[in-house]
Amino acid sequence: MKDFEPKIMTFLCNWCSYAGADLAGVSRIQYPPNTRVIRVPCSGRVDPLFILKCLQDGYDGVLVSGCHPGDCHYISGNYVARRKFAILKTALEFMGMEPGRVQFSWVSAGEGEKFSQVISKVTEGVKILGPARKLVKSMDSLESPHD
Amino acid sequence: MDKLVEKIKDIFADEKLELLIGYTKGTLPLRATPILIESADDAGKLIFDFTCQNNLARYLVDEKKRGGDRRRVGIIAKGCDARAVVQLVLEGQFERENVVIIGVPCRGVVDPGKLRKKLAGREIVNFQVNGEKITLFGNGFELELKRSELLSDSCLACRYPNAVQYNYFIGEPAEPLGVRDGYASVDEFEQKSPDERWAYFEKEYSKCIRCYACRNACPMCYCEECFVDCSTPQWIGKGNDLSDTIIFHIVRVLHTAGRCVDCGACAAACPLNIDIRMLGKRVEKEVTERFGFTAGLDFETQPAMAAFNENDKEEFIM
Q1: Element (H or E) spanning A117, and its range?
Q2: A128 has a chain B CB within 8 A of its CB
Q3: What does the alpha-carbon distance between residue A122 and residue A48 come to, in Å, rounded to a whole number?
Q4: Contact status, residue B260 vs residue B308, Cβ threshold 8 Å
Q5: Which of B32, B70, B72, B73 has the alpha carbon at shortest distance from B54?
Q6: A79 touches chain B (CB under 8 A)
């Protein structure tokens, strides 16, 4: 499992984190290529169901990133998201899901450097955890598609 | 019991009720059934005792779906029913002035699942209550149980046995049972290792046959289209795949976060005795500790998940 390369889904809000990722790109800042990005209007748009669905479909980790508190383009979308995520994280960790699988961050449009750090940290964390097994949908067994 | 009937007759006239939701004797022993009456003449059918398990707020939601929400509706409410009504009003499902909450003191109700377990397939024809002892009579057997053995887990941990908000209250307020500390079972469970916890939930949820009885019994599940029934897009599979089932249960808990009044209707409705309460109780604890909100206590406070505070804790964010 040394050369395990996780697949990580990231939901980036259009106004801050997506622009932050863009800045990281145009600034040629290096970060691991393990992420797949879905651009969403706001971190408040992310239904916890999306995150569970990603884990079910075989992603090893999920990251949701939005604007810093106070900077939301829609004024309060990220505040509402923060409450939802707190509850989702509590529920998943209580059930026994590894804490590193589902992560949240605030990245502004000017924080290309921070974006690359967040992605590196999440990727490293998930690498240590290994392939996701809990919640993964599989016809025959709960073995991960990585094996 | 006559006192209840007399009072209800008075309330019917005073409040010009058009409908009253209450309980009546069911066809099975230890199982009262909900009844909707439209005239004070039928008040004699009403009962209230420890067999009145259903959360009647559910029928208030159904009444709205039938377009009857402009009628003046009375509802006989235990502590949990009343809290559910408050929460529904707060969520804009019902006008406060159209609902007349008639509180009754509750000393715990029978959990049909526990009864089923005790009987192990046998049927009872009658029962007798003697203080804290309940004797069940069936064909060729007799079973003596303590009352607390039959009461719902929600009741054993109940803190609000009487309606917090009400228009009328009939009888003397009951003391909370307080047999078990509200979150003791959750805290104890949390001591186990994550893998043990996951294994426990897998074992519990693998029993699920996806009948959605838990959803249908819940007064808070009133969506026009539930996410499990949605087919465009189809979020989760409709079969009995374990990961689909687990996701159903997680999302059901998330949707009732900060709204659940822990009436135990979901657990009581489950034909397979799945431990439905455990996860919900943990989320309830988090909502209380993190956001300082308890569902169904007053008509003013915004529900936790419909509000936010700029200073909410965010230690989990990277």
Answers
A1: helix A112-129
A2: no
A3: 18
A4: no
A5: B32
A6: yes
**Which residues of chain B does A134 touch, with a Cβ-Cβ cutoff of 8 Å?**
198
Provide the 3-class DSSP secondary structure of residue B50.
coil
Distance from the Cα of residue B17 to its chain's centroid: 24
Site of tokens 């599989």:
A138
> Is this complex's ipTM strictly greater than 0.95?
no
B 194-213 residues inside an 8 A Cβ radius of A: 194-199, 201
Q: Is B314 on the interface with A (CB under 8 A)?
A: yes
Q: Report the domain count for chain A.
A: 1
Residue A9, beta-bridge partner list: A36, A62
pTM, 2 dp = 0.93
Q: With CB atoms and an 8 Å threshold, state whether B279 touches A94.
A: yes
DSSP type of residue B41:
G
pLDDT digits (tens, 9 = 90+) for B32-83: 999 999 998 999 999 999 999 999 999 998 888 887 667 889 999 999 999 9
Please, what is the angle between helix B194-205 and helix B242-255, to 10°?
100
CB within 8 Å: A105 and B199: no
Residue type, B269: A
Domain housing A53: 8-129
Cα atoms found within 13 Å of the Cα of residue B236, Cβ hemisphere only: 29
